[in-house]
């Protein structure tokens, strides 16, 4: 299989930034390597193994250390499994799955079975939302609850806006290597400037074969069959997956929609304060549920 990394040097540069971000987190962790039908999956596990499990799924062109940085306090209450999504610039296999079939759902369920965990909470950003919803479609029996931030697979934004504001700057950077085009891309997608994102995405855009396949949206019938509680955080100024549009459709199609929140001043990628609010929501719900279980005992 041809590598998705264009050169070995480019791969080394991207994975060096991966390691740098992981080092900066200053956490105790272990790498888990899980074999699946689709290739080896790399997972970073942190938090006490006796804690309830939560799986974090990063967005497109991302990696597990970014997901761990986004929600740094979850390991206090959870056993956190941050997955390197397949065919992304990280340490998992480079097998590109089909977004239209059940491959992503089958893959995550194989991971869950290999980890021997149940009552799993899942939290995902952007493309990670598609992965999680595909998991629920395929087999949701071991999933307790999910939290989706600016998720793909529910609605899509205006393709012309995305073309001019996101994809053209990206392509111009790939052609010229002028950082101003990465900055332009980031200013449309990120609520707040992220220095690491500038470095990491600059390397990814140049050295990784990205997937530009249009993102599908979930079928209404499949959405209505989901029984797992869903919480969604949508960005009002999200060009890729507009918040107001997402709220309207999510309310119509998901019977188990527990909460949906519009983050007023958020673009596609939330800033630190907004991520803290999302994390707080996950933690508070978990503490509340655990205390209810203890009382009932």
Structural commentary:
There is one protein chain. With 297 residues, the protein is α/β, with parallel strands linked by helices. The chain is built from 10 helices and 8 strands. It has helices at residues 8-25, 64-70, 103-115, 127-138, 159-176, 179-189, 195-207, 220-225, 243-253, 272-296; strands spanning 30-34, 41-46, 53-57, 79-83, 120-125, 143-149, 230-235, 257-263. Helix 4 (127-138) links the parallel strand 5 (120-125) and strand 6 (143-149). The model is unreliable at 291-296 (pLDDT under 50).
**What share of residues is helical?**
40-55%
Radius of gyration: 18 Å
CATH superfamily caption: Alpha/Beta hydrolase fold, catalytic domain
Which structural category fits the helices and strands? alpha/beta
Give the N-to-C terminal Cα separation.
Answer: 53 Å
Give the strand tally.
8
Order of helices and strands: HEEEHEHEHEHHHHEHEH
Overall pLDDT score: 95
CATH third-level topology: Rossmann fold
Low-confidence stretches: 291-296
* CATH structural class: Alpha Beta
Strand content range: 15-25%
Query: In total, how many domains does the architecture comprise?
Result: 1
The major pleated sheet works out as: 8 strands, mixed
The neighbouring-strand order within the major sheet is 1-2-4-3-5-6-7-8
């Amino acid at each position: 299989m041809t590598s998705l990394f264009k050169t070995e040097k480019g791969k080394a540069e991207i994975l060096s930034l991966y390691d740098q971000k992981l080092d900066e987190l200053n956490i105790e962790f272990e790498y888990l390597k899980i074999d699946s039908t689709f290739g080896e999956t790399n997972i970073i596990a942190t938090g006490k193994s006796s804690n309830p499990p939560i799986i974090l799924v990063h967005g497109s062109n991302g990696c597990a250390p970014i997901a761990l940085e986004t929600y740094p306090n979850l390991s206090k209450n959870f056993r956190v499994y941050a997955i390197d999504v397949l065919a992304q610039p990280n340490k998992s296999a480079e097998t590109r799955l089909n977004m239209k079939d059940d491959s992503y759902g089958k893959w995550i369920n194989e991971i869950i079975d290999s980890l021997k965990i149940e009552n799993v909470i899942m939290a995902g950003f952007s493309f990670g939302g598609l992965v999680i919803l595909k998991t629920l479609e395929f087999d949701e029996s071991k999933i307790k609850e999910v939290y989706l931030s600016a998720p793909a697979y529910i609605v899509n934004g205006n393709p012309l806006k995305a073309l001019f504001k996101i994809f053209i700057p990206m392509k111009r950077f790939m052609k010229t290597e002028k950082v101003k085009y990465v900055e332009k891309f980031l200013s449309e997608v990120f609520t707040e400037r992220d220095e690491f994102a500038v470095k990491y995405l600059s390397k990814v855009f140049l050295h990784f074969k990205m997937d530009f396949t249009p993102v599908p949206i979930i079928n209404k019938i499949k959405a209505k069959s989901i029984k797992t509680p869903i919480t969604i955080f949508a960005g009002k100024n999200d060009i890729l997956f507009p918040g107001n549009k997402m709220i309207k459709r999510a309310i119509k199609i998901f019977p188990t929609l527990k909460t949906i929140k519009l983050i007023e001043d958020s673009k596609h990628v939330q800033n630190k304060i907004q991520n803290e609010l999302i994390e707080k929501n996950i933690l508070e719900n978990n503490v509340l549920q655990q205390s209810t279980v203890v009382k009932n005992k």
